[in-house]
Amino acid sequence: MSISLKTLSTFSILCLALIENVLFSGVTLAQNASVSGYLLNKGSQEVISSGKISIDGSSVTQSNTFGYFSFSASEGSHSLLVEAPGFLAFSTALVLDRDTTIRLELSPWEVQLDEVRITTPLSDERGNYRLTAEQIKNVPTVLSEPDVLKVLQLLPGVQGGTEGTAGIHVRGGSPDQTLILMDGVPVYNANHLFGFFSVFNPDAVASVDLYKNDLPARYGGRLSSVVDITMREGNRQEAKQSFQLGPLSSKLLLEGPLKKGKSSYLLSVRRTWLDVLAKAAQRTAGPNYASIGFYDFNAKINFQPNQKNRFFLSFYSGSDAFKNGNTSGGDKSLYSFRWGNLTGIARWNHVFGPKLFKNSTLSYTNYRFEISNRFQSADLSYLFRTSSRIADVSYKSDFSYALAKSELQFGLETTLHRFAPEIVQTKGNVEVFNTSAVSPTFVADASLYADYTYRPTNTLRLQGGLRYNLLRVNGQTYHSLQPRLSLYQDIPAVSGGLRASYMQNVQYLHLLTNSSLGLPTDLWVPITDRIPPQRAQQYSLGFYGKLGKQFDWSLDVYTKSMHNLLEYTEGASFLGSPDLRWYDRVAVGKGSSKGVEVLLQKQGRKFTGFISYTLSRTTRTFDLLNDGRTFPYRYDRRHVVNVSAQYALNRGRSLQMLFAANSGGYVTVATQRMAGADLPLFVPGGLPRKRGLGPLNELGVFPFRNNLQMPLYHRLDVSYKVDKQKRRGMRTWTFSVYNAYNQRNAFYLFVNENRLKKFVLFPVLPSFSYAFRFD
Amino acid sequence: MEDVDLPYPPYVERYVLNGVLNPDSIISITLRKTLPPLSDDSTGYVPIANAKVLCYRNGLLLGPMVYRDNSRYEFPETQPEAGGVYRIEATVENTTLSATDTVPTSISYKLGGLPYKITSQYRNPDLDLTFLELTPGTKYVWLSFINRLSERDFGDTVDNFRNVNGIVGSISPYLDDFNATRQDGGVLQVYSFMARIKPSALGQGTLVFAPLSFTGAYRRPGTRLTLHVSNFSQAYDRYLKTAITALDNPLINYNGVLNNPFYEPINVYSNVQNGLGILGAVNDRSQVIIQN
Fold it and tell me: Is pLDDT at A510 greater than 50 in this prediction?
């Protein structure tokens, strides 16, 4: 790891600023008063995170994940402004003469249908993004199934993989380089239905934060970005129920107070029903069937006995299953493929005083996949099962300490990972020579971090963070120091500002995948003595501002280098070589990415939306691949444009539109065709043959990896939503058309019958859904 | 599925040298040109008939090879010797291709039968194979069967016979699973048409396997089942493994149907300098197991 002198110097300045603030805080406090409290949703009394609080026109702090905020201001009269995505802004006069605890409440704009509709910028001044559940639901999607990760794919610097899938690639990184957190706990497989949908039920989501510009030091373990998803707590004022029927799944959500104003619960469940129908229909037609389906379940309880303490219990369970049953004569076989996550989280918030806040989290998360095959006949039965499992037990404590003109966040995290990939079990009356059970690998992971934000003036903020990581696996210990630095300078004259950041990240986990689909067979594996940790460093510089009252814009440039990336070697895939251990099938290399990202967002009463554009170049270089020559990353798309717009008609009707276009990614195609040497002892007629030259007469020669750019991709999605207040609640019909003009986009390319061909997966796809939310 | 028009990477013609050295046959190679990947040329690969091809053994020139037909060059009346290091140099216009390989020795094994059957729908005889005096990791051994079966077993009414490739079935951990599929999704691994023994498993224990064919096919007079235990050079082993992987895992199969959406393009191993192809070597031992 290399840390430049300049980086160290800047970091030293921030440390000195911290010392100065701590040592002289008593002096400062003689002139200032602390203001602390919670920011709440006025309707449901749920907390609001990332709410921006400004005093006299200058931003002073943001509410944290738990809605808590704390800042200092001089005694006297001030104007206070509070803003949060999805809520009406609130302003009031604030008179301070002592330390004060206040409770701030914002009204969600969704209940102010006849009022001026206000949206807050998608991007904050740091260049990170915040999405609300409403924004997620307002983007048309495949089969009317709103999806958190697919909306993130529309933002600058973020893109999806293969069409329709939910994996996200941030600034040239692979999907595993994004840390996806659900209530602060990692989710290893965020995919339902082979990656076409994510596991997060939008009804249970409160907010989604994407960090890609500067990663606070409290986050670590991934190279590219963090998606921090905060799940809703449940309405603390009144019980609510809602359900939704869609072509893919049905959802039910129950929430309400356990003790009004003190505690609440939220239960949400989502399940596909097509699998049940498909299975029933196939069984009616015959004994054989194939089906796929998923469910997910979220439960959350919170309890606030007093203003200083708050407790949360969360539980998530989600699973997918693919089944294929066959019956022939007296023989029965059932092939099944299951994968899913299970997470349990306990959290405790404690306010030590107006300046110090703590959150402790104890969590357990478990991801597993299992392939099993049962066979039963009159004289034979057996069970074959392969499974892989990752289980983490984790504890962390996060503190935030508010000082005059600055804030310190610090904490620690310890995790014990248990990896058990590639387990094989066999049972039955079949003689077995060997079972290749693999002992699980335990990895101990500990981190310390500190993030310090210093505001020397009303318009300048400096932030320095440092994360120390210690990891022990197979008797070896690895250390890393990951510095994070950023600067934000408001420029009031142009209603904008400038930002710059630098970060180093280390990733100790690798995801082995050879597919752009979210396959459950993707393996998470720890580093070994042969596979080093991934490392990356990124520089970025950005500008942002307003154009009039309705437009926000931002422009960022970045350059990122990545080291110790993994790729499967040629022909080594999970399907092809189950006999090989994973580390015999991979190559280690490096990558780089650089780009320009532009976001233009329109706010307003009737018409809202945004345009995002990314110009980027991403490459990979592996000694063992492509003869060591640099090649384009599979998803190196030079230009990516997304346009999302919503138009509110009268009487609860609205139109939504999404246009997406991008340069094609890359695939590898043969540059020559040749005849190879025949298989030895081969008897003609035993294998498929063409032109009488033998079975190996059509071998492709692939001297260059990713040597063909796929065609331009573009499509238009539209949806029409009708809300109507009924006697017992709000009814919503949504009609969507995916790929409205039936563009024949290539899902993949291939050569067949001497022609280059494309496979089109998603033609025009209309759908509708029905939702009802009880009053 | 639809055609798509895209600027395809430029085509550069290359020369392909293929040859397998086997002590059972004379030294021969083929020389051909490549075709563009999208070529609809139905005449096949263009043979190179005017090359100057030289053959060396243990560093000494044996002499020039003679062009016969259909891209084939031979070194007349000379069979490769086990342990010999052979080098072929082919000069085509201004390009000289070269490749070197060593002919392996044959290996010793003991073949027996087992009283029980590996579970398979055909219930064919189980065989056990024990290798003698082999150090793990030093040899590249493959198994295959040739069946001589009556045309009656293929629905014909005459008693003519023809050879077909047999299939190896096994649940042994000693076999390399790279080309294995599970029969009917069960535990029995089926290796079409050759099974590679893990080099690290050689000399470790007894390998149990079964020839899979039609039930009762071997009872008919005139039928025959022959086992081949082949010792390959390392280069040929690598070629075969990559070639079979490429053959078994196309994105689209010969009928134009999606075969393996998770496939990745694979380059077949080549030891030819300045060209493509393989000069491999094999030493084969065969044994007739059933003959009626």
Answer: yes
Query: Model's pTM, two decimal places?
Result: 0.83
Closest CA to A627 of A574, A691, A703: A703
d(CA B260, CA B266): 13
**What's the pLDDT band for A612 if we cut at 50, 70, 90?**
very high
What confidence score (pLDDT) does residue A583 get? Answer: 65
Distances (CA, A) of A700 to A571, B34, B243: 13, 10, 10
Query: What one-character DSSP code corresponds to residue A59?
Result: E
Q: Average pLDDT in the B267-281 region?
A: 94
The Cα A251–Cα A773 span in angstroms is: 11
Run of H or E including A268: strand A263-272
Cβ contact A253:A268 at 8 Å:
yes
Query: Would you say A503 and A535 are in contact if contact means Cβ atoms under 8 Å apart?
Result: no
Give the confidence band of A292 by pLDDT, cuts at 50, 70, 90: confident
Distance of CA B18 to the CA centre of its chain: 13
Q: What is the pLDDT of residue A420?
A: 78
- Rounded to an integer, the average pLDDT of A142-157 is 86
Report the range of poorest mean pLDDT among A366-375, A635-644, B116-125: B116-125
Q: Do A571 and B194 touch (CB under 8 A)?
A: no
Beta partners for residue A54, in sequence order: A59, A81
Test B37 with A373 for CB contact under 8 angstroms.
no
**Among A227, A214, A136, which residue's Cα sits nearest to residue A178?**
A227
Contact criterion met (CB < 8 Å) for A571 and B246: yes
**DSSP symbols for A731-768:** EEEEEEEESTT-----SEEEEETTEEEEE-----EEEE
Q: Could you read off the pLDDT of A382-435 as tens digits, one per residue? A: 666 777 788 999 999 999 998 888 899 999 999 999 987 655 555 555 444 344
Cis (ω within 30 of 0) for the bond into B193? yes
β-strand B127-131 against B206-212: which pairing, if any?
Answer: antiparallel
User: Which residues 6+ apart lie within 8 Å of A114 measured at CB?
Assistant: none
Distance CA A108, CA A88 (A): 6
How far is it, in rounded angstroms, from Cα A315 to Cα A336?
Answer: 26
Is residue A190 within 8 A of residue A344, CB to CB? The reply is no
The letter for the amino acid at B78 is T
B91 and A CB contact within 8 Å: no
Shortest distance, CA A112 to any CA of chain B (angstroms): 49
Burial A185-203 (b: 16+ CB within 10 A, else e): bbbbbbbbbbbbbbbbbbb
Q: How far is B63 from chain A (nearest CA, A)?
A: 23
Task: Say how far apart CA B233 and CA B103 lie, in whole Å.
Answer: 7
Chain A residues lying within 8 Å of B12, measured CB to CB? 671-672
Whole-number average pLDDT of chain B:
83
> Which residues of B, range 178-207, sit inside 8 Å of A by Cβ?
178, 180, 182, 184-187, 193-194, 198
Taking the CA of residue B254 and the nearest CA in chain A, the distance in Å comes to: 8
* Half-sphere exposure at residue B252, Cβ-oriented, CA atoms within 13 angstroms: 18
Asked if the C-beta of B285 comes within 8 angstroms of chain A's C-beta atoms, the answer is no
- Collapsed DSSP state (helix, strand, coil) of residue A288: coil
Chain A residue whose CA is closest to B3: A757
When the pLDDT of each residue in chain A is averaged and rounded to a whole number, the result is 83
- Write the pLDDT tens digit of every residue in B73-117: 999 888 999 999 999 999 999 999 999 999 999 888 888 875 545
Q: What residues of chain A lie within 8 A of the CB of B275, using their CB?
A: none
**pLDDT in the model for residue A130:** 86
Contact A389, A400 (CB under 8 A): no
Beta carbons of A106 and A41 less than 8 angstroms apart: yes
For residues A25, A29, A30 and A35, what is the CA-based torsion angle, rounded to 10 degrees? Answer: 180
Q: How confident is the model at residue A667 (pLDDT cuts 50, 70, 90)?
A: confident
Distance from CA of B58 to the nearest CA of A (A): 23
